[in-house]
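Need tokens for this chain, all 216 residues.
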Amino acid sequence: MRTDLELRQDVERELAWDPKVNANKIAVTAKNGVVTLTGQVGYFVDKYEAERVAKRVIGVTGIADDIEVTLGGTKPNDTDLTERVLRALKSNVSVPSDKIKPVVRDGWVTLEGKVQWYYQKSAAEGAVRYLQGVKGLINSITIDNSVEPQEVGRRITESLTRNARIDASQISVKASGHTAILDGSVRSVAEREEAEMAAWAAPGVNLVENRLTVRY
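Here are the structure tokens for all 216 residues:
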């Protein structure tokens, strides 16, 4: 088990290692596996990348992302930002833009609507994440897949087993109607999210209950 000091140092080194992150502007603290990120960055994607990097560090069981997005340079008003968001959604071929409505308030973008697949929800978020002027992003899009689920638990388990980034031996999968339930433990927050992504890909899954814990 890593001490709080060792875990903090590991996260700091990983942040400094990744060229997408300006580690000089981010401070790290750690307590019992929970890592807190603070500081100021110019763009929302910088905040996102820092959190993404911290998640993959072994020993991190949770993240408190308190990084502030300062929006350096010219700040668009909410009307201009809404137009940018709409154009970004329409330009992404993976996004059914006619089914998604963005709501913008003080630079915070909330995506609402229903799509058939999780990858469409994820693609919508990705299309907006890199836009200048975005201070924060809430993805409230729901999944509405009418496909009748068949052998969901077995098919998700097989997908987890094929994935080299997941230790499937520690994960159990159950299905209840259109809901997939993941239980067990994983080695990192990033692995927990990877397992959830695999579950979302199963036809007929409209909800994933991720009960996986991160081993500390």
